[in-house]
Request: fold
Amino acid sequence: MSSFANKILELSAAFGLYDWWASRCLKQVYDTLVGLADLCGDEEILDVGCGTGMLSSRLAKVSDGISVHGVDISPRMITTAGRRTRGCHLNAEYTVGTATKLPCSDGQFDVVSSCVLFHLLRDSEKELALREIFRVLKPGGRYVCAEFEKYPAWFSCKRLLEYPNDLIGIVGFDVDAQFAGPSITRCHSVVYRALIKPGD
Ligand SMILES: C[S@@+](CC[C@H](N)C(=O)[O-])C[C@H]1O[C@@H](n2cnc3c(N)ncnc32)[C@H](O)[C@@H]1O
Reply:
């Protein structure tokens, strides 16, 4: 990943700026992801690149029967996420780890989520991360994501930052839903996906 981008994110999280920005700009994104997850109320969910746990805690709030596991590469983010849920009686736990080698068992989760994570991964890491998400999902499990994709033509890093759309089928996912949402920044909009790991 870009360690520079990671440092900026960590700094902004340390001063509360990340949560301030996310609660304004990502609120609708989180709501859409919770809807896309199509939860019954007893799922085990993994939130990859969970950051300060904004999405993870929303997912956990859907029902007491839901348990959420957040993984992030940044220990500082994980500490902040843990602080958010402490005392809230939410069934959420957080672990430091990387999307390219998730600290989880094969077929452990009913649902996996990622929110604005993939643009921080190198090209080679994107494939590994997508394969890891596939691995940790149960057969029939659902992967929901909201990732930056539609970059304007003048944006020079466009290719580097895009979601690995071409790998979705190669990794083995079926596409249940895919649509572009409104722009959350001036530069790029967010594409939502619900991908299914085919059942046995
Ligand atoms: C833009 S933040 C989004 C956080 C959270 N998903 C949200 O929506 O609020 C991206 C997060 O991805 C994490 N991240 C970056 N590279 C990662 C990797 N290889 N594995 C796991 N997390 C990573 C960063 O530390 C950061 O917390």
Notes: Helices lie at 3-14, 17-25, 27-37, 54-61, 75-85, 123-136, 158-161, 168-171.
